[in-house]
């Protein structure tokens, strides 16, 4: 049959996780923690199910969770969104990204994405009938090149998609990026989709430049986050979108017919958890920073060269001292022959930089898992 997504195969995350399983490799590929979710959250979920919170939630999310998100947003970013008009709970950040794109992008529209970018962005744009315009981030720092982004803007540009902290590199927007972004969008009708799923996984005292801090940006933005990343439960698939009332109204038109609502018991559990233990998200950076530092120190004893990681839970490594293979071939070889699974970067690009020799390792893992991987990587 004619396909609507001719460029799309099976996602690299599925491909590499399957290969890891087949070969018994230590899987540092697909990004997910291998440790437990907070005990209070499990208990709250269990209680919600036993108390009969098992039917459809309100389409926009249960009020207690939207209130908790509003309060947390104010605490973190000094701005309290309206829980009724501006916050929508979704089945993961993935659903929120799809809903936002489908809500505002139509045939002939252009959407600027910054490569490397998360692999669901372009298919969402394609299904909406739009066209992704790829602008590369700096190949070394993964910082946005604002003059190149400005040059990509045309009268057809409808949406700009950003991601900070960034998957796969961990790069984070600075205040200067926010200033350039604000100037770029001023006096245009371009919407902004800010993917902030790693908002609390930030290191070395850096500040997360959430779009929600900035009135001029947030009045045109969909800001997306995911409880999967913050609460070690990627399999629960609960996220949310914050957007001004008019944009939320359009967003909800899609959401209500896409999923209608999100897993009810988890909404009760997150509402309780966010209010009762703000320390969890406040200390998430410190929790992951210890893992990052330990893993990096170990990697420095191998032939892989770790790049800086300002945020997120991925470590990029340069493998050019080990192999001349392209990144997909290298990651297959590393899994099959060396027993460690990584994610290649080229699937995150329209056109990856020539000769780039980078792979992504996830350090959201117990020490034992990382130690087992390092033991194998020492033999490279
Ligand atoms: N955006 C980015 C940058 C991600 O890394 C992920 C998770 N891999 C998502 C969105 C999707 O999040 P969720 O699992 O909540 O759908
Ligand atoms: N976000 C995860 C990652 O980047 C993968 C999510 C998925 O498997 N679709 O590894």
UniProtKB/TrEMBL annotation:
GO molecular function: transaminase activity
Aminotransferase class I/classII large domain: residues covered: 26-377
Protein name, entry field: Pyridoxal phosphate-dependent aminotransferase
SUPFAM superfamilies in UniProt: PLP-dependent transferases
Cofactor: pyridoxal 5'-phosphate
Keywords: Aminotransferase, Pyridoxal phosphate, Transferase
Entries under InterPro entries matching the protein: Aminotransferase_I/II_large, Kynurenine-oxoglutarate_AT, PyrdxlP-dep_Trfase, PyrdxlP-dep_Trfase_major, PyrdxlP-dep_Trfase_small
